[in-house]
Amino acid sequence: MSRTYKAIGINLKAMPLGEADRVLTILTKEEGLVRAVAMGARKPNSRMSGRSGLFVVNDLLVAKGKSIDKITQAETLESYPGLSRNLKKLTAGQYLAELVLQQALSEQPQEELFYLLSEHLARIERSSDHEVLPRLIHATFQLLAIAGIAPQVYQCCMTQAILEPDLQNADWQAGFSTTAGGAVTLSALNQILEEQSNQFRVQSPVGEYRLAPSPDSASTVVADAPQKRVIPKSTKLNVAIDALELAGLQQLTQADLTEMSQFPDPVWFSLERLLRQYAQFHFDQPIRSASLIDSCFASPELKKP
Predict the structure, then answer these.
(1) I need a surface site. Which of 131, 172, 213, 296 has the fewest CB within 10 A?
(2) Which pLDDT tens digit goes with each residue over 78-108?
(3) 282 Cβ contact partners less than 8 Å away, ≥ 6 residues apart
């Protein structure tokens, strides 16, 4: 006889199975990531129908199976109906669910991750439309922190110099290096970009020359006082950021966002892109729902071809 176990978990993913069942991927406090069958969950009058919904938190009794577990009892403790009634909030929730699936462990307690996700889903559900994107970005940073890979934002990753954004200077810049692990000084960014550009140098019988960038490649202008220089941008993983963007990154380290209105929408959109690329690089997996972020949140002038 297969053994049973109890767990409190939140549904992160559902897939149809057969004619009437669902396979749920659940983040539980006690057992970590669990995949289990919800029998009859797709039947219209089934008690499991609502309990197998996305982001529903259940008190579960699960039977351990040879190949996959089976839910034998489920009592709903919490749900987030406001997420499903708003496209922006639903997209943000799906984005966070993907990040959790990329970092959660199986057969190990994941209590801290469970409570962190639950708290941020509740904040997003309570948010106004204008607050959803900042709340999503804050939650993303906190999930990276709990995974132990959050970007460093107060000191340069290369030199350990303290980074203090000058919000009164419109020309102030620093850098953000996904490969190095976070914020860097402008001179360190130039060094990183120069090392990257050297990868495009080849030897010829008449000496060294630099390969021309491909037609679809971009260039980035990096201000390095007292002069400016243009460096081919072979990757978007290492870019220049302004004072507001760095200040926004630094605020994400706080337990809650208190000054969302200080930062205009373009800054939040830029920070989402930075953290999206950072998460995809360090988890080595794409965030599939990220494309919906572009269509849900970006204004026409912010959308890029």
Answers:
(1) 213
(2) 999 999 999 999 999 999 999 999 999 999 9
(3) 144, 149, 178
Please give the Cα distance from 147 to 58 (Å, whole number): 24
Cβ-count burial 235-260 (b if 16+ within 10 Å, e if not)? eebbbbbbbbbbbbbebbeeeebeeb
Q: Strand 57-63 and strand 21-28: pairing?
A: unpaired
DSSP character at residue 123? H
Q: Is the pLDDT assigned to residue 201 strictly greater than 90? A: no
Q: Where are the beta strands (DSSP E) in the chain?
A: 4-17, 21-28, 32-38, 57-63, 69-78, 173-177, 182-184, 201-204, 207-210, 218-224, 227-233, 238-242
CA atoms of 67 and 200, how far apart (whole Å): 49
Tokens (6 digits) for 211: 């390969």
Does the global pTM surpass 0.70?
yes
What single letter denotes the amino acid at residue 94? Q
Please name which of 80, 75, 137, 112 lies closest in space to residue 274, comparing C-alpha atoms.
137
User: Residue 226: is the preceding peptide bond cis (ω within 30°)?
Assistant: yes
Q: Report pLDDT digits (tens) over 153-186.
A: 999 999 999 999 999 999 999 999 999 999 999 9
Phi, psi torsion values for 106, nearest 5 degrees = -95, 150
Cα–Cα distances (Å) from 127 to 82, 98, 116, 120, 164, in that order, read 10, 21, 17, 10, 30
